[in-house]
Design a protein that fits this description.
By secondary structure, the chain is an alpha/beta fold. Helices cover about 65% and strands about 15% of the residues. The strands form three sheets. The chain has an eight-stranded mixed β-barrel with strand order 8-9-11-12-13-14-15-16. A five-stranded mixed beta sheet has the order 2-3-1-6-7, sandwiched between helices. It has a two-stranded antiparallel ribbon with strand order 4-5.
Amino acid sequence: MNNSAPSSQRNRRLRSLWQLMAYCFVPIVLCMGLALVYSHLTLNQMMVAVADSQQLSDEQAQRMESMHKDQLPLHHRLREMAVLVSRFEHEFELLVLDPERPDDQAIELRQQLADYLQAIPLPASSANPQLNAWLLDSAGLVLDLVDELLETGGSNDRYRLFRNTLYPLSELRNGVMQAELEQETRNLAALNTLNQAAERSRAGWEQLVSRFVQAERVTQALMLLIVLANILCWWILGQLLRKRLLTLADFAAAIARGQLLKVPFISPDSTGQLALSLARTARRIRALLKEARHQADEAQQARGEAELLAFYDPLTGLANRRSFNHSLEQMLQSVQRERQLFALFYLDLDNFKYINDSLGHDVGDQLLSHVAGQLKSCLHQDDCVARLGGDEFAVLARGGTRDSTELAERILSRLSQPVELNQQPLVVSCSIGIAFARIDGDDISTLQKNADLALYKAKASGRNTFQFFSPELHALSMHRMRMVMELRQAYENNEFFLHYQPKFDLASGQLTSLEALIRWKHAKEGIISPQDFIPLAEETGLIEEIGSWVLRQACADIRTLISRGCPLPVAVNLSGRQFYDGKLAQTVQSILTEAGVEPRWLELEVTETVLIDDIDASVKVLEALRALGVSIAIDDFGMGFSSLNYLKKLPIDVLKIDRSFVCQVPGGRKDCAIINTIVELAHRLELTVVAEGIETAEQKAYLHSIGCDVGQGFYLAQPVALPELMLTSDHITEV
């Protein structure tokens, strides 16, 4: 591995060197080759031009020689013939004028003319055939006329023939002159041709000289071009290297920005290897950046969702508790600066739990969204509304007592309007507690606590109303807080005890069973009723421990009654926390086994409102308890919603009519109708009916008249401690 790396680098350097040499020498070789090819072509053209000039010179020389041979003799003959014709014409004119003149001279001239005419024909290359034929014809005609003239006698005839001969002679003379003119023309053409040949020859030599000069210049240009080509090659090489370096720099910068680009070039040299390395690095960086960006996006989204969840309620879109506390703190600071007044409203929907459980959580969520919209419609733009959790809302509104009263009445009126959700008509109400800044508290904690106390007072006042905070509420709150602390101490110090209230058969007056009722013996306030501390125990969660103690103590007292020979069933009330803790059946079984009591002597009472919270879960718990052998009673029957719909599903033994119905009989017509219906329905379901809260003889008589099975109340017997019960062996006491 260590030896291969230097070897690879050395090979790359050699390749780069060879590539550099190729870039430098290839242009030079190409330029030299082009120069040689151009010189060769130029020499060929010059040789062709010289050959053409030589051929032209030869042709002109031949033509000049032919002219000397053919044209000059013909020219002399023609001139002599013209002179002869002129002499012959002159001689004939003398013969005509002088008839006595001898014919010898004319005959001699005729013979000379005939000799010349015979010598006129020339070679076809140098004479005009038509002119030659025409001259022969004219000469022949002239000779015939001359012969006729010589043979004719008399001056008149000769004069007539002479006149007839003048025209042919003139034509002959003219023809000879035309032939001479034509010969001169041919001579001029030959001279022009010769001049042209000379001009072409001179032009050829000039072109040859020019080509030689041009070849010399081309050679010089090629040498200069070679030098420039070297410079250009080195410049191109430098630019190529610079461009590659700039490309690599841009590629690296793009990689640094997180961009993924293709490899800018592929080559086996070092720059190509560097580009490939950068590309691989870019892909890795791109993958890392993509993962980092994805994580950043997820973090940003999570941060946004966290901020949304941190400051806004996802269901209603209102501000949540955290955001509302921030607004409340800013409002308190502005009040301290500007000396303004504003109110804090705490709102809680009435009986929302029953609506949510009976109609479903979806309808409950729709109702909360509807309430949020109604609250926003009641407020001004500067007011603030928030959902604190569950069915609790809060409002910050500027103004004093009058403005707050109007706002509270407007909210109660708006929410009391019927609304249809999921095809189910509903009417909702709320309770409102109001506290004023600077009056009921200068800090967030105090103001919120006092608004909550006012809300608690509004709920205690009958709901669907509003209450302002007052100092008395603070005193009650402090008392309640002290009670909570003392309640835990009372459990630890064993300050609780049981009273038992008998239940009687209304037909026979026989004592049928007892109901265990818890009491608290306070060190300062004496005996405290369970209506005062049981709600506190349920809120603090202490009710489970107290309920277990009541079960143990009741089973121990049952064991005592059995040992005294007076066994009676004892009814024990269960709280909602006990009923749904998931271990009720095991706890009851363990307590019965520990006390050594048979399950048939124990009766467990559960309020109707607890059972209908989750009817399916309630059925499972009741079936588990029934499997132990204990009896099950529904307490406060008639106070819940739609109880009759669920009654057939519940595995129970006893139905206890709530005291709110019993106290109105026999005078209350509607209450009597309700009780009659409950008794009849319970008997049809084979259940025992117990009427609680019997205070008068009329109530006892009426209940007995409609067939109610068992009754209990202060009129029959008050709750007392177990030792104070007057029991006989037959469990009968006269009422």
